[in-house]
């Protein structure tokens, strides 16, 4: 099974797990707004401060759903101080996936 299929199935599993406990899902434009804000301010804010500084206000529960999705999908990470960093880089990942001398564990 290729990288694309593994990634697709992991997103489907993540979605199905989240689906069981979430009544209201964030809209796509809201998710994209949070993604863009994190990209622009990577490493500046901790989770709550990030929510407080978003360009558009939203309920904290909605923010947490988006935050958990981004964390579980490998787009963001927390540093040792708890600050949120954008780590998703598909071009770099593709470059490494094409190398035969590297193995994914």
- Supply the CATH class of the domain at 25-97: Mainly Alpha
Q: State the fourth-level CATH superfamily of the domain at 25-97.
A: Winged helix-like DNA-binding domain superfamily/Winged helix DNA-binding domain
Mean pLDDT: 84
Q: Which strand order spans the largest sheet, edge to edge or round the barrel?
A: 1-2
What's the helical proportion of residues?
Answer: 40-55%
- How many E-type strands? 2
Number of helices: 5
Largest sheet: 2 strands, antiparallel
Q: What portion of residues belong to β-strands?
A: 5-15%
Low-confidence stretches: none
Helix/strand/pairing category: mainly alpha
String of helices and strands: HHHHEEH
The CATH topology of the domain at 25-97 corresponds to: Arc Repressor Mutant, subunit A
Based on CA inertia axes, which overall geometry fits? globular
Q: In angstroms, what separates the terminal alpha carbons?
A: 14 Å
Description:
The protein has 105 residues and is mostly helical. The chain has a domain at 25-97: Arc Repressor Mutant, subunit A, CATH 1.10.10.10. Helices cover 54% and strands 6% of the residues. It contains five helices and two strands, in the order H-H-H-H-E-E-H. It has helices at residues 3-19, 28-40, 47-52, 60-72, 90-97; strands at residues 76-78, 84-86. The radius of gyration is 15 Å and the shape is globular. The two termini are 14 Å apart. The model has no long low-confidence stretch (mean pLDDT 84).
